[in-house]
Amino acid sequence: MNVVLSPHLDDAVLSCWHLLGGGRDVSVVNVFTGSPDSPGDYWWDQLTGATDSVVRMRERIDEDRQALSLAGLRPVNLGFLDHQYRPDGEPTAAVVERLRAQIPAGATVYAPAALSEHPDHMIVRSAALELAGEGFDVRLYADLPHDSIKLEGRGGRDRSVGASGPRQGARGQERESGGEETPAGGPRHGGMIR
Ligand SMILES: [Zn+2]
Question: From the CA of 11, how far away is ligand 1's center (Å)?
Fold first, then answer.
């Protein structure tokens, strides 16, 4: 059995669709699927055109469910709050605990490589690597569209948003928090493109 760990509602679909189809024995675990208590004032949701973050999360959950249904799958949503909704702290230990209970013995686990160092992706990668240390069979996948974004600051390379980078309000494309808008239209956080 394959278990695909998806930090957000869309990462498994965007990055691992090749693993999801074809009637394979696979489970998708979405980690950061929690909803804020109130419509709130969350910058990424505002950036992508949402006026109510509670409604937006319902939309994202429904969209992901519909996408995975095309492969005959139903996701497991763990309900952790994603980066834009978390007041502070990183729930890595709690994520490890939930994943340990969720992954059957003998399963092959696919986890994000967190290439852009998005905090939510890094938490899932860290959790998966901790499980690898316990003997779980863990592989890392390239996060899309994150890995299509060139990063500077690593050997002085150019930091720019590629043609496939996230775009505001584009349904079906990566929509997640963790950065701020760049002039080119892609999100950036703390000097890092997400
Ligand atoms: Zn993501």
Answer: 5
